[in-house]
Design brief:
There is one protein chain. This protein has helices spanning 2-9, 25-32, 55-66, and strands spanning 42-46, 71-75. By secondary structure, it is of the alpha+beta class. It is globular, with a radius of gyration of 15 Å. Helix 2 packs parallel to helix 3 (55-66). It has three helices and two strands, in the order H-H-E-H-E. Helix 3 links the parallel strand 1 (42-46) and strand 2. It has a two-stranded parallel ribbon.
Length: 91
Amino acid sequence: PEALADRLREPAATDDASRDATDFTPALAEALRDDGAPVVGVVLLTDGLQNAGGEALGALADRLAARGVPVFGVLIGSTSRPLDAAIAAVK
């Protein structure tokens, strides 16, 4: 939670092209990390648009499926402005 809070305090670079992209691959890769803690599932909070990550995303999803780890997508967002959501705190 402290690292997330620090990251949220950092202003986003306006010239960073990645801020306009959604990439699930880091989250899925984290679920595959072997640190001794069992992963029983992955929950992705998403607006439903995946526009980065490419072929790596499919390979990661296949590896999770082979381990029997389900991936659940929870759709969030709105058709009305503002379209973005932010996590202000994690407890």
